Amino acid sequence: MSAHEVVALTAPAALAQVRLLVVGDVMLDRYWFGDVSRISPEAPVPIVRIEKREERLGGAANVARNAAALGAKTSLLGVVGDDEAGSQVERLLEGGGIHSYLQRDAAISTIIKLRVIGRQQQMLRIDFEDAPSDTVLRDKLAQFNALLPHYDVVILSDYAKGSLVNVAEMIKAARAAGKIVMVDPKGDDFSRYSGASVLTPNKSELRRVIGSWNTEEQLTERAQQMRAQLGLDALLLTRSEEGMSLYTADEVLHMPTDAREVFDVSGAGDTVIATMAAMLGAGMALGDAVRTANRAGGIVVGKLGTATVTRDELFSQ
């Protein structure tokens, strides 16, 4: 693809036409920032005096936030509790220009990841989480099927928190409708993701499924075997400091990391899948979409916490 074609596909007007539906585990990321000056007399732990608090969209909501930051017309389908944190997620979605199709489940609490930061270092993370109830999950699947005709690209963001127990049915329905389906997987059984367009595991996630590898040749053989068995168009392996590797039926494409400075890797996978989905939705070729996503991942790891990359940041590089 020529530079002129890339610019045309990533113009604001082109990205604004992309209709993207994100489905998965919705979370609220809370950050408490403070000063550390002494050790507690009660236990050998630092005392953090909180001076500032921030709240950001996490999990599947962070994927949606990243897609919206690039200008894609983005909606989010997921489950939150009928609580204060769920209301805050709704407010943050509205502020980010993301259309919310969140189901409120009175039987659970919204998933929260609370991070305590002292001296620019994460001192502690506390997680609050419950799995959604069966009734809400059935309603969510019915709503997914109703929404499907209105979107071009579907991202299924699985954090193994219970929102995607129907993922196999979702993939089948979306592919039958001719949609691009991208999946960020979890767990040691990827068979439920069969038939997806693109699967985007990181190294540890892939290792749980195919085992360890000693050489690139061994990795390629196992990755290609799994891609073929699952009927995927492509497998994108995100490899942290080693960059990314794309496996398709026609080629294997390795890209070195684009990071200039690694400050925080949390949420980088969300940025990668959201960027790739937006670019594919705009009509960009697979290889170019992966290169663009690699660049986005390199930018976001230079920021603290679950962050986003704007179109201007991405294409001014």
Automatic annotation (TrEMBL):
Name of one Pfam family that matches: PfkB
Domain Carbohydrate kinase PfkB, first and last residues per copy: 20-308
GO terms of molecular function: kinase activity
SUPFAM superfamilies referenced in this protein's UniProt entry, alphabetically: Ribokinase-like (SSF53613)
Domain of life: Bacteria
Keywords: Kinase, Transferase
InterPro entries, A to Z: PfkB_dom (IPR011611), RfaE_dom_I (IPR011913), Ribokinase-like (IPR029056)
Record-given protein name: D-glycero-beta-D-manno-heptose-7-phosphate kinase
Species of the source: Janthinobacterium kumbetense
Source species taxonomy: Bacteria, Pseudomonadati, Pseudomonadota, Betaproteobacteria, Burkholderiales
Gene name, Swiss-Prot/TrEMBL: rfaE1
